[in-house]
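WARN no homologs supplied; continuing
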Amino acid sequence: MTTRLALAAALALCCPAPFARPAAAAAASATEATLVLRGLDPIELIDGREVEGAPELAVDHGGFRYHFISEDTRELFLADPERYGVQWDGACGRMGPLSGVGHPDRFAVWNERIWLFASDQCRTGFLKSPEKLQPIDAPLELAAGETLRLRVFLDGPLLEVFANERQCLTTQVHPRSRAALGVELLARGGVARLRRASGWPLRAATFTDRRR
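OK structure emitted
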């Protein structure tokens, strides 16, 4: 089985609080999808055109409702909603996939994908250098019954993740608030169970000059 490890450096970036649905909408979110992209057809949007879709040609996916201009664009979306729908399940494109939901009407298209944002500041920051804010990932082959074991080291701005002693991801992070200091795990495309987790502070390294 191939597991993909993802390391989201964007989580450490400073950004205002994510979009929060009104209380009435939040209570109904389990059964009622939120209209996204101001009702624009996502297929047309990715192609560079802002064309309003028809409510009668709607699709609900991932808690969002999409409108389409034709059955053709609707069927294209249904064939691959992960590609044509908003990325990261609607999380802010600058804050990262573990952040809260971005505003459904604040979006940008980059690399043929649609991204939502929690604020105009997040959107502007993302568009300055979007390639720097994407998670880095790597494949890891797990044998049948093998447990995924992760060791995560945060040493100043250096973040390293070691998986089963044979895969490593490294990046730099620069948290600007204590709210950004934390670790979260998620599984996409399946179900995972956390068996054990432990943490400890790193001690400052002491170097001895043996030349003296």
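Residues 7-30 have pLDDT under 50 and may be disordered.
OK
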